[in-house]
Amino acid sequence: MKYSIIIFFLILSSILVCAQEKTIPDSIDYRRLLERIERLEAAAEEKKKEDELARLLEEADMLSDKQKSEDIDRSRKFYSGVRQQQGLNPNLSVLGDFFGSVSSANDELISEPGDRTHGNNGLFMRSLELSFVAPLDPFARGKAFLDITEERVSIEEAYMEILNLPLNMSIKGGVFFPEFGLLNRHHTHALPQFDRPRACVNYFGLDGFNGMGVAVNFLLPKILFADASSFDFSVININDNLSYSSDKSVNITYVGHWKNYYDISTSSYFEYALSAIAGRNDEIRETNTYIGSLGLHYKWQPPGTSKYKSFDWKTELYYGFNETPFGIVRSKGFYSLVHRKLNARMWIGGRIGYSEMPYDSDQHEWDYTINFDFWQSEFVFYRIQYQYNSRNVAYLPEAAGSYPSDHTVVIQFSWAMGPHKHEAY
């Protein structure tokens, strides 16, 4: 029995030894695999740290190069003071204004372009305007506008403005449209209707009046509870105008313009302007013409939706005092117009006006206008306009024969290249 027990333990020990020898290799392979995985993870982590360090070094190099470049640019500007050449170029714009019109009156005074009509019963290029605008230095800016038609090339405006002078003053010198009334500063392509009201035309011609001269503008203290008040005084040479013409090369006129501005709300304002002009109408007889106007202007343009809706109303009253060889002629006229934006692209407008002839107040005309505008973009617009002119005009100083009444339909298309678009100028 004793030997049997010993033999049993010997056999059991042999079995355990064999089992241990069989499992040891598997345990060793497992440990080796774990060690290899740990080494790979450590290598990957080290590689990641090296990549992050390389990226940070690259960004530091880029920032260093940029700082060096900026330092070089600053040093060049500081020592030379020369701007890049394209920075010296003015803003250049080209504007084309074309139309076709049909009139019920088959009369040369209405069909042929002249002092009182742009033309009818045909297709016309009313104007091709070249615009050059640039700051001259921190204290002055220059503007030039050339007007090209089929018959001539003329200087519409060419002037320099000196800004921010003492007493809230600025000075303008050159050829320009002075401040007078509500529409004289508007270039023709920027009018709310195709043409100017007949009162403006009969006093000053189709395009208003301009000339070579000097103008001074003052921003005044607030007068009569206004939010802003201003006064302009111009001395200009006019020698080719319906009211002011002379055989001499120099015909000096004096123009004053006072305006008060009122904010009604965040979306609307009102302003009124008093204007007057005085000058010779005949240098030989030394007779003068005086014209005054009262302009009222209301505009509604709600913030945030001004792209889609607005309302603009202008009314102006004229009074003329004209010295002639036959005595003094007193004349009057007015117009009232509205311009309503229906949405982002469509406008509708209307106008009514009355004008007595400055040379004969017994002769007069009424004008009734309605227009529809489609703005393809801020650079291109199309307009269709109907106008009825009821005239009691027996003769015109510049032409023989009576000036007949007529119905007119105009289709206008206008385009612009550059920053000076069709905004009111």
List keywords for this structure.
3 helices; 21% helix; 16-stranded antiparallel barrel; 425 residues; alpha+beta; Porin
Explain this structure.
With 425 residues, the protein is α+β, with helices and mostly antiparallel strands. The chain has one domain (92-417): Porin (Beta Barrel), CATH 2.40.160. It is 21% helix and 49% strand. It is built from three helices and 16 strands. The chain has a 16-stranded antiparallel β-barrel with strand order 1-2-3-4-5-6-7-8-9-10-11-12-13-14-15-16. A hairpin with a 4-residue loop joins strand 12 and strand 13 (346-357). The protein is elongated, with a radius of gyration of 41 Å. The N and C termini lie far apart (130 Å). Residues 19-27 have low confidence and may be disordered.
Q: Number of helix segments? A: 3
What is the beta-strand fraction? Answer: over 45%
Calculate Rg over CA atoms: 41 Å
**The CATH topology is what?**
Porin
Number of strands: 16
Low-confidence regions: 19-27
Oligomer designation: single chain
CATH superfamily: Porin
Helix content: 10-25%
Question: Which CATH architecture is right?
Answer: Beta Barrel
Content-based structural category = alpha+beta
Round the mean pLDDT to the nearest integer and report it. Answer: 87
Largest β-sheet summary: 16 strands, antiparallel, barrel
Identify the CATH class. Answer: Mainly Beta
Task: Tell me the overall shape.
Answer: elongated
Order of helices and strands: HEHEEEEHEEEEEEEEEEE
First-to-last CA distance: 130 Å
